[in-house]
Amino acid sequence: MDDEFGYDKVRFTNYKDDIFDCPICSCVARLPKDCSSCGTVFCGPCVDSWLKKQSECINRCPKGSTIKNIQKSLQKIYDDLEIKCSHCQKAFKIADLDKHELHCKLPKCTNYEICGNTIGSTNEFENLQVCDHVCMILNKIRQIKNKQDLYQCLKQYVKEKQPAQLVQGVPLVLNQDQGNSNIPVFRWDRQRMGTGITSSDGDTKIFLKEQAYMFRTAVATYGFEKGIGYWEIEADDKTENELKIGVSTCRDFNYNTAFCDFEFGWAYYGLAQLRHNSNATGPSFGKRFKKEGVLGVCLNMNNGTLKFSLNGEFMGTAYTDEKLKQGPIYPAVSLLHCAGCKLITGKPVPEIFLN
């Protein structure tokens, strides 16, 4: 079924009534909305298209009637519907379907049973049918039977690549500016991104282009356990909508939401506001940030604080919370409509955060 219409009923495993039937396409509603007067549920794309041609509800409801997203109580029922993936036929909660299908339809790495990764169109290893350096090495190892040849192969590869590029998960590099402290170098986790987010440059750059105007989240591969962590978010000049940037104590949730909508997320919102456990309101903070500049993020787990800077200028302590002392805590960012950024890691903590 095309994304512009609803879902075929035969794909559902627990849909027993017609409460979410869209009268326009006669399918189960996708991104459901309803009328404030008659309560009829429609596909979001269907009714949006209808309202571009007509100024009233399809049921000719009184003037002043509005079409908007369904209420939370109804949304909860909708989110519990189970639907089969159009590719693998496995059943999932409808709230998780888009992300699963985006992942499911991609070609799988030749070592998929081990790594669980797919191969995106921006992957530099696409022609080798592997997802990253680790799986490329694994394929080479499988082809080498002589231990001496294996040793020489790995030795040559280590010479050519920095250690941080050899590990898929969380490589650590030694930073001379901070003595013997290890500074983590990490990236965005391709398995933990909302629908429509694409990654490039070794998964350090992400970009979202979608029409639903719903926040989508990307979570980093690394979770801080203790001490002070620092990373930067560099703006993408093609960004049209402000980002929500911060940390999450949870790495597995519905990525087609903003992580800071929940109690496990703390974020700076590019509108110069803060967001924690809310998708609507938050106090003013700092300066605006959207399509230019570099945002510095400092998580101090020693005292449970989250601080931000913009272009090297300290903006202040955004949060002080006991929960920010307990790891793992993951860097996260939420994108809306047309937005992107680059993740920069491996830098020492700037002095402005240590004073």
Task: Provide a compact summary of the structure.
The protein is an alpha+beta fold and about 350 residues long.
Structural key phrases:
single chain, 355 residues, alpha+beta, Herpes Virus-1, Jelly Rolls, 7-stranded antiparallel sheet, FBXO45-Fsn/SPSB_families
Structure notes:
- The protein is an alpha+beta fold and 355 residues long.
- It folds into 3 domains: 9-94, Zinc/RING finger domain, C3HC4 (zinc finger) (Herpes Virus-1); 112-165, no CATH class; 172-353, SPRY domain (Jelly Rolls, Sandwich).
- Helices cover 16% and strands 27% of the residues.
- It is built from 6 helices and 20 strands.
- The strands form 5 sheets. Strands 9-10-20-12-16-17-18 form a 7-stranded antiparallel β-sheet, with no helix packed on it. It has a 6-stranded antiparallel β-sheet with strand order 8-11-19-13-14-15, with no helix packed on it.
- A hairpin with a 7-residue loop joins strand 6 (172-174) and strand 7 (182-184).
- The N and C termini lie far apart (57 Å).
SSE arrangement:
Blueprint: E1 33-35, E2 41-42, H1 44-53, E3 67-69, H2 72-79, E4 82-84, E5 91-93, H3 94-104, H4 112-115, H5 133-143, H6 147-160, E6 172-174, E7 182-184, E8 188-193, E9 197-200, E10 205-209, E11 216-220, E12 228-235, E13 244-248, E14 265-269, E15 273-275, E16 294-300, E17 305-310, E18 313-320, E19 330-335, E20 338-344
